[in-house]
Write a structure and sequence with these properties.
The complex is a heterodimer of chains A (341) and B (417). Chain A is of the alpha/beta class. Chain A has helices at 22-36, 60-64, 76-88, 107-120, 150-154, 167-179, 229-242, 260-270, 285-296, 321-324, 328-340, and strands at residues 17-21, 40-44, 69-71, 92-96, 130-135, 160-162, 184-189, 196-200, 213-216, 221-225, 247-251, 254-256, 273-280, 306-310. In chain A, helix 6 (167-179) links the parallel strand 6 (160-162) and strand 7. The longest helix of chain A has 15 residues, at 22-36. Helix content of chain B is 44%, strand content 8%. In chain B, 47% of the residues are buried. The chains are: A alpha/beta (341), B alpha/beta (417). At the A-B interface, helix 3, helix 4, helix 8 and helix 9 of A face helix 6, helix 7, helix 14 and helix 15 of B.
């Protein structure tokens, strides 16, 4: 689904839809979840009276009370660990990790505890815990505030990992994540928080958050990405079209499990694939997608699957982040390389 | 680190009731216990000690992958377990065999876990709310605190009805006191005033690391900095373990907030069957604690109250029966079916796990039936030739045998997904 920044047509308000920033769309989705199930709880640092550092939970504590929206002590392991106990009691906790780079103190509770609890309980208990994580660059912030740690969690059995790219998906996918009976790492592309998009509150469009979606059809090269990367890919496709190259863009939406159906179908159609992500490339979600497409569509490919990613360095200081983050130029460079085979 | 001036002791190592300023508030709780209950304390300690020895033997004979002895720590475990009410929830570490048994856990579940048949293996709803063992040190302290938060949010404590109000008991050791999770659990429990009681069994050794390396301050003082009242108890005194835990659980269920107990005990055995404590500790220390054995002193106390040889013989017979039964049942245990590894990874259906499970089943079946030379691959990996993937069509169209093999690799390529 195109957004206002990339598609002028989307600024016109369609019937049955409203224009919301991604932050407001998430807020609306969380409100729906809180209103629809009194076992849903929000918990995290600064999410109550302040409404979160990004204001995603603004007004929710006032509306639902301190027993539904909990300001927690500043301790990520504590937030996730107590959420596990709350899930054992029958709650559906939605935890906010304030920034991507602050998730690691909670890493053991997420990967060794939360992810394995259903398996250890042999199915007698479910652990419907959602962990919301604002992630990614483009906001010029200081160290630990612009990272993309999703691969750690996609690698871990027992977790589901998803990331919306649009306001519409943000509104629906957060509700679907909360309805999931499994733990979900919900990565919110924070550079999109303030971007407006059309939200159809009457129709999710997909019955599952685990479906990849072709968001622009094309015939020459397939571009695959998630989160904030999707808008970069759409811009690249727009520019390439002016030069007569037809690029297809697929929004992953789900990073675990990955919905390979649309990816393989697109790869077979175009024969050329570029996978793009902000995260470092080494042992990443993009690596896995590239390997799988090569394995399964080998006879259809005209070129090796190429990857565009953050470099294998720490996320750099903000003044040079634009050189680190894959942009339209780097995506189109990869497109050119693919077409040269 | 041994008993201090602050240690609450109700029964001396010689088996006499202790009347002191420290014991006075707790003695009425003990005096309210009838002889039957006191004898049950003894029975549980003796039976679990015999079970523990039998399980250790089974490990040495190759029947278990690991054993985690509880020898010497029976008193605090039995006393605190009897202090809990049926509606309470209990989050153990991994050495609380006696607590589990008292709550209704079939100890064979512990045997099965340490034989390598499961990673947990019981449903807390069927074991008196005794939750699974947690092997990562201290992690369960946060789960217990979160559970306590849930109890509060549900209004399930502090209603004034002790038959219904819920408290939550969590166990960990002196090593765990250094973990961030335990300290964060103190922060959360104090902040929300949850109905949690934390029991630290200070058995003086975290494998080879002495408690002096974990803390420069007596551990019972730790929680006070978090705003959580605490006691240090003689962990080898089942009466002190019972009375202080009972008092603290009642306070927690009444809405007075969390409590912390440091129980001074001693790990008479190894950390686990993989450990060799002779490499790092002295016989003198072992002898010191052997003189403070929890069972011996309680037997003296019970005999003084009139328990006779018949009772003790009966208890020993029950212990021997359980040991024999555990041995028999252990030798009868069967491995889980291998495909069990794919179950309960998720609650909701998951395509990757389902696909790999199907591939695994086909692959295993292919090993069972030796294919005739030149036969089609028996178990192509899921995804590659199936579901309309282009691999299948390409394989069918390919002239070259090599290409066909690429498109539909043998199961041994392990090309799941």
């Amino acid at each position: 689904m195109a957004e206002s920044t990339t598609s002028p047509a989307a600024t016109e308000r369609a019937a049955g839809t409203e224009t919301l920033t991604m932050a407001k769309a998430l807020n609306a989705g969380l409100r729906e979840a809180l209103a629809g199930d009194d076992r849903v709880l929000l918990m995290g640092e600064d999410i109550g009276t302040l409404g979160g550092v990004f204001r995603v939970t603004e007004g929710l504590q006032a509306e639902f009370g301190t027993g539904r929206v909990l300001d927690t002590p500043l301790a990520e392991a504590g937030i996730v660990g107590t959420a596990i106990g709350l899930a054992m009691r029958g709650f559906r906790p939605v935890c906010e990790i304030q920034f991507d780079g602050f998730i690691y103190p909670g890493f053991d509770q997420i990967t060794s505890q939360l992810a394995k609890q259903t398996f250890r309980h042999e199915g007698t208990q479910s652990f419907p815990v959602v962990i919301r994580v604002p992630y990614g660059g483009h906001i010029g912030a200081v160290e630990h505030h612009q990272e993309s740690p999703e691969a750690y969690f996609a690698h871990t059995a027992g977790l589901r990992v998803m990331s919306p790219a649009t306001s519409h998906d943000a509104y629906w996918m957060i509700q679907q994540a909360i309805a999931s009976n499994d733990p979900v790492l919900f990565f919110e592309p924070k550079s999109r928080y303030w971007q407006k998009g059309e939200v159809d509150r009457g129709d999710a469009g997909e019955d599952s958050p685990h479906r990849a979606r072709v968001v622009r059809t094309g015939t020459d090269v397939t571009l695959i990405g998630h989160g904030a990367m999707v808008s970069v890919l759409l811009q690249a496709a727009e520019l390439a079209a002016e030069e007569g190259t037809s690029l297809e863009v697929v929004d992953l939406r789900s990073l675990s499990p990955i919905d390979y159906g649309p990816l393989l179908a697109s790869a077979r159609k175009t024969g050329r694939v570029v996978v793009a992500q902000e995260a470092p490339g080494n042992v990443s979600v993009g690596s896995e997608i590239a390997a799988t497409i090569a394995e399964k569509t080998f006879y259809s490919l005209e070129a090796p699957v190429l990857r565009v990613s953050g470099y294998d360095t720490p996320f750099p200081p903000a003044r040079i982040e634009s050189y680190y983050l894959p942009d339209v130029d780097r995506v189109l460079e990869a497109v050119d390389r693919s077409l040269a085979y | 680190m041994s008993y201090t001036e602050a240690t609450v002791q109700l029964l001396s190592p010689e088996g006499d009731l202790v009347r002191s300023e420290l014991s006075e508030p707790y003695l009425p709780l003990v005096e309210a216990l009838d002889d039957q209950t006191l004898q049950d304390f003894h029975r549980q300690m003796v039976v679990i000690r015999r079970f523990d020895i039998e399980a250790g033997n089974l490990q040495r004979q190759g029947q278990l992958a690991l054993w985690i002895p509880s020898l010497g720590q029976e008193a605090i475990q039995v006393g605190s377990a009897y202090a809990a009410r049926p509606q309470d929830h209990i989050f153990p570490a991994y050495r609380e065999h006696a607590v589990g048994r008292i709550r209704g856990l079939d100890v064979m579940k512990i045997i099965a876990m340490l034989r390598g048949l499961s990673h947990g293996g019981w449903d807390p709803a069927e074991t008196g709310n005794f939750h699974l063992f947690t092997l990562v040190i201290g992690s369960q302290s946060l789960h217990a605190t979160g559970y306590g938060m849930g109890v509060m949010l549900d209004g399930a404590h502090a209603t004034g009805d002790p038959e219904k109000d819920v408290a939550v008991l969590a166990y960990f050791g002196d090593g765990a006191s250094s973990q961030g999770d335990v300290n964060e659990a103190f922060v959360f429990a104090a902040s929300y005033q949850t109905p949690n009681v934390f029991v630290l069994q200070n058995n003086h050794w975290a494998i080879s690391v002495p408690v002096e390396r974990q803390s420069r301050t007596p551990l019972y003082l730790r929680s006070r900095g978090f705003g959580i009242p605490s006691e240090q108890v003689d962990g080898n005194d089942v009466l002190a373990g019972y009375a202080v835990t009972r008092s603290y659980l009642d306070a927690a269920r009444a809405g007075e907030g969390p409590r912390f107990i440091e129980a001074l005990t001693y790990r008479m055995g190894a950390h686990t069957s993989s450990d060799d404590p002779t490499k790092y500790r002295e016989n003198e220390e072992l002898a010191f604690w052997a003189q403070r054995d929890p069972i011996a002193r309680f037997e003296t106390y019970l005999r003084a109250r009139g328990a006779g040889d018949d009772f003790f013989a009966d208890v020993q017979a029950e212990a021997e029966d359980l040991a024999a039964d555990v041995r028999t049942r252990t030798l009868q245990l069967t491995d889980p079916e291998p495909a069990a590894m794919f179950r309960h990874v998720y609650t909701d259906p998951h395509p990757v796990v389902a696909e790999q499970a199907a591939w695994f089943e086909a692959f295993e079946a292919s090993l069972a039936d030796e294919p005739a030379p030149g036969a089609e691959p028996v178990a192509p990996p899921p995804g590659t030739p199936a579901d309309g993937d282009e691999g299948a069509a390409a394989a069918a169209a390919a002239d070259s045998a090599d290409e066909a093999a690429e498109a539909a690799p043998s199961p041994a390529s392990n090309g799941a997904r």
